[in-house]
Design a protein that fits this description.
Layout: E1 2-7, H1 11-26, E2 30-35, H2 40-44, E3 49-52, H3 71-92, E4 98-102, H4 109-116, E5 120-124, H5 154-179, H6 188-193, E6 198-199, E7 221-222
Helix pairs in contact: 3-4, 3-5
Length: 223
């Protein structure tokens, strides 16, 4: 059995997937990782195959690249990011039996898994990534977000967050899905996070606040 583990981020995003990969290897699985090129030499030294994706994170860690761009340049970068993901993850996933994606920039992996007819699992490292009436969505300053008041209506904020996901990524993702013969995505955030994500966080330090409103929250498995 072969598993593809994919993330786009810095060391804190990559290392948990590497730990998962080592455990899967110990169980006899073949593991392949899609990660930024910075980590290739280290991970290959652990006996796992690496397919580089995205830019080196060292070059983007000091300044948020989107914060310094015009809206048109932001759109071009977003389109390029999605196109690169569909190409890279699409090639890396060939011959794999499952895709595990971590961090919310997994914009192509769910479509690639659907196209190949294999399972896809999204993993969050912190409860705040996942919709819940008990906390606010992540604050993205480059998008113009500001921290909400302590007693804000979190459900309304999550509803707006879903609208923002659709506005930012919907048409870009749907264009690539159409090329694969897949239907458009109605809810981009749910498409990325899935309805049954894993929460890889210590249940004491980062517990999932159950019970919750099933109409607005996914069914979370805390690992």
């Amino acid at each position: 059995m072969r598993a593809l583990l994919s993330t786009i981020g810095s060391r804190g995003d990559v290392q948990p997937l590497v730990a998962l990969g080592e455990q899967l290897q110990a169980l006899g699985l073949e593991v392949r990782l899609c990660v930024p090129p910075d980590f290739r030499e280290w991970i290959e030294g652990l006996g796992m195959a690496v397919v580089p994706i995205g830019p080196e994170v060292r070059s983007t860690g000091k300044v948020d690249p989107l914060a310094t761009l015009t809206p048109q340049q932001q759109r071009q970068m977003m389109e390029g990011t999605v196109a690169s993901q569909f190409e890279t993850i699409g090639a890396a996933a060939r011959g794999c039996d499952i895709i595990v994606g971590a961090t919310a920039l997994q914009l192509a992996a769910p479509s690639v898994a659907q196209h190949l007819g294999i399972p896809y699992v999204f993993v969050a490292y912190c409860p705040i990534v996942l919709p819940s009436r008990h906390h606010a969505p992540p604050v993205l300053t480059w998008r113009g977000d500001a921290p909400p008041p302590a007693m804000a209506d979190y459900r309304a904020l999550w509803a707006k967050d879903a609208q923002d996901w659709n506005a930012m990524w919907g048409s870009i993702i749907d264009a690539h899905r159409a090329a694969l013969g897949l239907a458009p995505v109605g809810d981009v955030r749910s498409y990325v996070l899935t309805n049954q994500p894993w929460l890889a966080a210590d249940p004491t330090l980062g517990p999932w606040p159950e019970p919750d409103d099933a109409a607005t929250s996914p069914t979370v498995t805390q690992t």
